[in-house]
Amino acid sequence: MQANSGMLTKFESKSSRAKGIAFHPKRPWILVSLHSSTIQLWDYRMGTLIDRFEEHDGPVRGVDFHKTQPLFVSGGDDYKIKVWSYQTRRCLFTLNGHLDYIRTVFFHHELPWIVSASDDQTIRIWNWQNRSLLCTMTGHNHYAMCAQFHPKEDLVVSASLDQSVRVWDISGLRKKHSAPTSMTFEDQVARSNANQTDMFGNTDAVVKFVLEGHDRGVNWVAFHPTMPLIVSAGDDRLVKLWRMSETKAWEVDTCRGHFQNASGCLFHPHQDLILSAGEDKTIRVWDLNKRTAVNSFKRENDRFWVIAAHPEINLFAAGHDNGVMVFKLERERPASAVHQNTLFYITKEKHVRSFDFQKNVESPTLLSLKKLGSPWVPPRTLSYNPAERSVLVTSSADGGSYELINLPRDGSGAVEPTESKRGQGNSAVFVARNRFAVLNTASQNVDIKDLTNNTTRSFKPPHGTTDIYFGGTGNLLIITPTAVHLYDIQQKKSIAELSVTGVKYVVWSNDGLYAALLSKHNVTIITKSLEQVSTLHETIRIKSATWDDAGVLLYSTLNHVKYTLLNGDNGIVRTLDQTVYLVRVKGRNVYCLDRAAKPKVLQIDPTEYRFKLALVKRNYEEMLHIIQNSSLVGQSIISYLQKKGYPEIALQFVQDPTTRFELAIECGNLEVAVEMSKQLDRPKLWTRLSTEALAHGSHSIVEMCYKKLKHFDKLSFLYLTTGDEGKLAKMAKIAEHRGDFTSRFQNALYLGDVEDRIQMFKEIDLYPLAYATAKSHGLEEECQSILEATGLTEEQLTLPQLGAPLTPPKPVVPTYKADWPTKAASQSFFEKALLGQVEGLSLEDETSAPTNGFGLDDAGDEETGAKRTGALVDVDDDEDAAGWDLGDDIVPEVEEGFVNVESADAGGAGLSEADLWARNSPLAVDHVAGGSFDTAMQLLNRQVGAVNFAPLKPRFLEVFESSKTYLPASAGLPPLVNYVRRTLDESDPRKVLPIIPRDLEYLATNDLQRGYDFMKTNKLEDCQRVFKGILHAVLVNAVSSESEVAEAKKLITSASEYLVAVAIELARRKFTPDMISQNPSNLKRSLELSAYFTIPKIEVPHRQLALLNAMNLAMRSKNYSTALSFANRILANGANPKIMESAKKTKAQCERNPHDAVEIEFDQFAEFEICAASHTPIYSGTAYEECAFDGAKYHTKFKGTVCTVCEVCEVGKHGSGLKLFA
Amino acid sequence: MDPFSAEGELINIHNHFHQGQYQDVVDFDTSSLSSENALPARVLQLRAQIALGHAEDVLADVQGVTGPELEAVGALAEYTTGDVDSAVKTVEKLAQSSADNATVQVLGGIVLQAAGKSDEALALLSQHSGNLEAVTLIVQIHLQQNRNDLAVKEVAAARRWAQDSVLVNLAESWVGLRLGGEKYQQAFYVFEELAQAPSTSSVRSLVSQAVAELHLGRIEEAQSALEQALQKEPDFADAIANLLVLTVITGKDPKALTSSLEQVDAHHPLLTDLAEKSELFDKAATKYKPKVAAA
């Protein structure tokens, strides 16, 4: 075929010469009128011929679709204009009047008019509603070749072989036909008979301009859709551009290039381009503004006769000697690339932009590519390199070229790239951080280039390579027309090959394990080592695809978004009203680019494919979740489940009893099957049920079925096998009652009832048999009576040899008493889950309440929840944090003589980064991380008076341990040590700082909550351990802002209060009941401790527990007054009803007798704190000492001891304050 | 032509070795190699054997063989089996007699550095002429001595003449991990590229990738890479060590990992460091005492 660079043929038909073409404005249809008198209606998207209309005699030259009605018009060499309905597929009527061949026919865009041009030198306007001729425009003095309405104004333009183009004003005609009908009937008749001249002597249509310039006949003429421009094509091989104003019109320029008659021309509906077609077998594209040739497409043998544009979408059609072609001038697929949460794409204006999927925002223009390639050729592909933040853009202009450009950090409008590297190539993709591959199809060569655009290696790809794609690290996917190769760049060889034809695009899954190969009609899913996983076929063209995070491929065809699982199961997700290119799926959103290169978000319902995926992965929890949360019931999903062998799951969805029965049988769910059979009550179903039940050993169901079916013999046999003699006897009775002797005989046999058998034989006069039976069972009397009855003697009989009498078989086990299942009833996990039997699957488990160790209902759970989140903020902070802001730190001088080697060039070891940390930071933790423990201790000693370091050892080692990694380097040498930083972006050695494990945030969200939980669940030792750990972790830590320092202080205070509280309670618990009963002072102390337990400022729900505890103890010891105060406090705090109830009761009881039996040192009205060492009150106003770190209060006598709370610092030693932030 | 260059026949075995794919090196079919490349290939294979822990076999293999290359291999094997003095002696002798031999430089450098004689190692290695492996060793020694500045220079120089080599990329990444900032990401790309491509992937590159991720603060990714590495080679000490570090960073209890590291490699730097610091702590802590002993 032709070498049509850039033109994309979408459809071609073979026929006789095509003279007229019309696009349907909405549907993918095209009308083609042929020289052979036929009019064809094609679906150019599907490539099918929808209809043929054959009523014209001779060639049909003009056709047009009506914009809104299901109509089209045609005009032919039989002088006839025909109006057709494509719905009823008939010609509705014919307009006669022209006296020669009709060249073109067009509908008016709003009025019910048709304009026609004819060889009879006239142009006529018709009303197709009343089927009349409105106006005949004369003036051309040769064949009128083409006439068209102006799209907006009341103008007609015509072209004629008289070498002129004429513009006609038809506003008179419109006035006349839309004027109010105020005139009399006579007037109207007179007026319509006036024919062209109205009462002022004006004609309905007057020539406005005559455009002369062509020096041969003019074949075609067209208005510009928006601008006052006209384009014409003539036998002088020229395409001329004209401009008009209100008063005049003139020639603007001429496009020269056709070397044969130019037969058709038009303006591009959206771009500043002119298209023309000619008998020189070319279609040419011209720049409207420069009137220069932009492109031309040549066909070998076919002269072009007509060209048409789709009014909306970017499609054109041209008719030639052997049919019609529908084509595009350029690809509409916007070049794009996705990296993590960002889409990079090139707009129609050739701007590079990005789109953030998380924020749903479009960036401003990052870069303008205006200068890349020719202005009319959009870039073809975009490859993004996140490491360098650069893009590689290819364009098909100039025989294929690529450009490597760095993106600016922020978009600041249309920036021209400052520095770009370019070269020749058809495809270019990044293959590594610092390498890209360029394919040159003409020379069949692939170059691997570095970022400076130098070729580092180059190789010959497999024969016939058309495209290359990224193939996983170090690899390329090489596309040939018949196969895809996985090519190892390092080894320069193809390591795998898969024969897939016509692959056009490759889409990698997010995890890089799978890729989808898209060809026109196929999707092939491969693994990263190029093994085929599945393939599917689509009749409609596949446009794009993208993977969701779970490994489902979503792809778009021209009109659908579909999905396919890895196993090839696929289905429709939604329909599309316009073509889009998918770039990303996230939840219910599909992100795509439309043809105008605008990012769009489509809503989808992913339930179906998620469900199927869960099914394939046997992820029952997920399935359950989906079933319970979405309305997934549909025939398709049921049949899918059944087909895939999950009838038991399908059963959950079905309502229809018949289907339910089928499914139940299939999965062996007899209960449901019985239920459904009862509902339906059809013999066929009972039969099937009986068979199935028999296989299951459920003979009670079998019995029921047989009863329903009245299968008496089977029923008898069933009773026999199950040993149910009672029922068997009943069967015999029934048989007798029915008079069914065979059945009776059978039952008698089963029962071993000889008498009945003989009786029966006698009844039916079978005496010989009766006799033989009696004889063989030794019933001589019976024999005799038979002989008597028959009047025979024994001698007259010749008996055969008689065998042993029949003994009926006896079942070993009386099975009839219970079913004996032979087949396990398949109650799936799934059903159980649905029935709520599987533990831990309940969907409410997120909200499951923690158990409460104090044996109470969850004390104000909601409140606790709220407290938890804001725990650090809410804790009272009236503790005077003295000593915290006491001016600057005294950073201990670093005694070790550091050798300054920064400028020394010669050998010798340098400072490790760990050493630098100690230098860079005044924080103890950074010294610890650097391994400089002694300086760290010195710092802590000065800051908070730390003296007892042993408890801090785990924390020291933890911090130290987490600061270094071990990088395996050269074999034989120890690993290279590197230093983990918390300052990730810093590379200045004077500013780097180490990572700190268990930072403040971690402590607040993990350890603190754990401490609360232990408190709640009454595990006080664990609680103590956790809070101590928190104190130690905060002591050796670092934060990133002043506000975090405040937060850290709150955390310290909170932990300290809890530790005091827990210590008090633990001390109280040391008193066993025996000790209390033996020594009254122990009772007193115990009561005091329980009262003190309520003093520390712990979280309210926890304090409630302490209060409740104290109240109950006080009650028990008849300390009603104290108990009353606790009860009041509980009520003041407010809590869950149970505690409140108990408090109210106590209060009522105590108020009757507000006296204490045991005197204790607890003044409910005084302000006091608790000494952390002695657990006695420190009343306000008395002197006290405290721990500089955690703020715990002590009686002055404890000064100099180690704080019992943190176990590190010395009580009463004031330091410079803990430093956590430099 | 340099047999290790991109066009040379040893490129693959050489890359396998430096990507840590030792088994691939041992299994490499050397029969088709030209005669002058047979010896370097054999040296690589022997070194791979040593790296795989078969130093004794190698020692037996090269016993009594002459020729500087194999003698150097013998020294490395000796060193690995614990015979440090003899190995150092051999190397020092070789350094006298054939210091211009590339294999002697590299293996000698390794033995000397491992024995703690960094200056001698550097002196031997600096005699190389266009030997990339020597360059990477020099880089590593500089880094071990915390002379990041010198390491940077060395890499920059090598990059000028051997841009595309795996070795240069690796050395640059080592330096990058030390320097940090944006270099972390670049180092990560190099390691990831090696670790993720099936033809170049090895446990070592996976661990390296994880280390880079750790430095980048991508804890979860690092963890999955390390777990992947341990799945492939459960006894890889560096993987355990790094996972241990990661565990501590995430605030979890590393006891199980500590004991498994002790089993695999009791002399891992992490353990020796920790033991040393633990001692230091106890010593330093004794300097402080409360004024009043607890009641």
Automatic annotation (TrEMBL), chain A:
A GO biological process held by the record: retrograde vesicle-mediated transport, Golgi to endoplasmic reticulum
Quaternary data: Oligomeric complex that consists of at least the alpha, beta, beta', gamma, delta, epsilon and zeta subunits.
PANTHER family registered for this protein in UniProt: COATOMER, COATOMER SUBUNIT ALPHA
Bilayer disposition of the protein: Peripheral membrane protein
Keywords per UniProt: Cytoplasm, ER-Golgi transport, Golgi apparatus, Membrane, Protein transport, Repeat, Transport, WD repeat
Chain intervals for the UniProt region annotation (Disordered): 845-864
Location of the Coatomer alpha subunit C-terminal domain: 828-1220
Pfam family, one: TPR_COPA_B
Compartment(s) of residence: Cytoplasm; Golgi apparatus membrane
GO MF terms, alphabetically ordered: structural molecule activity
Residue span, COPA/B TPR domain: 622-777
COPA/B second beta-propeller domain mapped to chain residues: 349-594
Function: The coatomer is a cytosolic protein complex that binds to dilysine motifs and reversibly associates with Golgi non-clathrin-coated vesicles, which further mediate biosynthetic protein transport from the ER, via the Golgi up to the trans Golgi network.
InterPro entries referenced in this protein's UniProt entry, alphabetically: Beta-prop_COPA/B_2nd (IPR006692), Coatomer_alpha_WD-assoc_reg (IPR047312), Coatomer_asu (IPR016391), Coatomer_asu_C (IPR010714), Coatomer_complex_subunit (IPR050844), Quino_amine_DH_bsu (IPR011044), TPR_COPA_B (IPR056176), WD40/YVTN_repeat-like_dom_sf (IPR015943)
Positions annotated as WD repeat: 53-94, 95-136, 137-178, 211-252, 255-296
A GO CC term assigned to this protein in UniProt: Golgi membrane
Record's protein name: Coatomer subunit alpha
UniProtKB/TrEMBL annotation, chain B:
Name assigned to this protein: Coatomer subunit epsilon
Family: Belongs to the COPE family.
GO BP: any one term: endoplasmic reticulum to Golgi vesicle-mediated transport
One cellular component term from this protein's GO annotations in UniProt: Golgi membrane
UniProt key word Membrane: yes
Subcellular location: Cytoplasmic vesicle, COPI-coated vesicle membrane; Golgi apparatus membrane
Pfam families documented for this protein: Coatomer_E (PF04733)
Biological role: The coatomer is a cytosolic protein complex that binds to dilysine motifs and reversibly associates with Golgi non-clathrin-coated vesicles, which further mediate biosynthetic protein transport from the ER, via the Golgi up to the trans Golgi network. The coatomer complex is required for budding from Golgi membranes, and is essential for the retrograde Golgi-to-ER transport of dilysine-tagged proteins.
Protein origin, superkingdom: Eukaryota
GO MF, one example: structural molecule activity
Keywords from the UniProt entry: Cytoplasm, Cytoplasmic vesicle, ER-Golgi transport, Golgi apparatus, Membrane, Protein transport, Transport
Major location (coarse): membrane
Topology in membrane: Peripheral membrane protein
